[in-house]
Amino acid sequence: MDNPVLSSILIIAAYTPIVLFTESLRVQRTMVASILTSRSIAPAITGCAKDFHRLWHLDDAQLLGNFTDERAASVTSVKHGSNFPLQNQTVLQLAGVLRRDAGMTQAITPYEPAVEKSFQTRRETLVHLSFAIPQKEARGKGGYCWLEAVCWTVTFLEFAIPIGLAMYMAISRQFTGVVLMTALSLSVFILAVLRSLTHPIIANQGEISKFSNDRAKGLSTLDAHVIADHWNDKNLNVVCGYTSHLHALTNIPLQVNRPRLLLWAGRGLAIVLLIQVAGLASLIGEKSNAWLSLSWLAIYIVMLAPPWILNAYHPESAYESYTATLTKVPPIRFSCRRAALVFISRLPSSSQAHVEKWAWTNVFMPDNERRKLWQAQVDELDLLTLENKDSGVEKQHPLKRDDPEYLKSKTLLREASAVYHHPEVLQPLLAYRRSVGLGTTTV
């Protein structure tokens, strides 16, 4: 090539695929999607050096949980008042239970409290609310539908097109290109085998099915789990459902029905990724073969599009192995952390005689006299609200009408009530209450 500028661009572009091998999450998410659902499409995957060790010694708890070295998120149970490390983190991310991508501007804001000096130091909080609507039985990975047919058709094309290009390159004696294209096809094939022969083993399925048929009675089986990366995080993920169902999601590690197959599939992917990165590295500095690296990059980008489209329009497919469907509420913006906690405390959940009502908030606030005073004020205002609703006449506590702390608690309660009755929150909430046999009466 005579043009030095274009020649330099090609040499620089040949380095681009190597950068992609610093990622690792796509390997995990793609394998998990293949295990959870038959309605998935495998993208082109890459991996870094530490992925080789993880994939070679792969087990289902590590794959479905926290694949990286980062600290796991934490969960607190509103019903039990307990907190524990989150299990099955990747599964919940694929199902859309864990959300962090929505900014404050995209969240719904049903209530704007008056901006006072006391409010200026409060931390805005985003609550990502989901309801696990129970079903009598899981959809499972079996059964035929048009979406599954589309997924398998795209998978076949992802396998066949690189193989066809590999044959063309073999005829042209471009053997490095043959290796790269074959590696793409082999990764698709391994993931297709996982999709066909594996499925998750979920705890408490029999108990969940019993609750789905009998319905909840007196809130005895309901809970809400609050999930956060840390307890000062502005993003709080809340999922409501049957107690046994939620613990199967957040507290009991999922298993795979064929762990040996999963192990060898992980080792096969590790070898394929190693050969792939070696082939790309061999093209660095080769001006005559730079187009091979760019061809691999072009196919890589094209293969990312189908799974992105599928996840955008059918995110619930990752949840098909559970006896429930997920209803997700748009992110809700609260003016401060306490308003969010008041709202969460009013979600459908059972109470236990030996567990204090606000015990679950211990991770958010110290259990001191100040907090106990605030809780007493909120409980008293809640009771007063119910009395006003029954009598039709608004009453106020005569001795606390001008108490600043009492007025702040009243403002927080108004904010929580406004969110509770916002149409985008109320409609899925009523559907959830009907699904568990609670009727449509709201607080």
SSE blueprint:
Layout: H1 4-13, H2 16-19, H3 25-36, H4 49-56, H5 60-64, E1 74-77, E2 83-85, H6 89-95, E3 125-134, H7 146-171, H8 175-197, E4 200-201, H9 205-214, E5 222-228, E6 235-242, H10 243-250, E7 255-256, H11 259-282, H12 290-313, E8 324-328, E9 332-334, H13 337-345, H14 369-391, H15 404-420, H16 423-435
Parallel strand pairs: 3-6
Antiparallel strand pairs: 1-2, 1-5, 3-8, 3-9, 4-7, 5-6
Helix pairs in contact: 3-8, 4-11, 7-8, 8-11, 8-12, 13-15, 14-15
Task: Give a written overview of the molecule.
There is one protein chain. The chain has helices at 4-13, 16-19, 25-36, 49-56, 60-64, 89-95, 146-171, 175-197, 205-214, 243-250, 259-282, 290-313, 337-345, 369-391, 404-420, 423-435; strands at 74-77, 83-85, 125-134, 200-201, 222-228, 235-242, 255-256, 324-328, 332-334. The chain has 443 residues and is α+β, with helices and mostly antiparallel strands. Strands 1, 2, 3, 5, 6, 8 and 9 form a seven-stranded mixed β-sheet that branches. It is elongated.
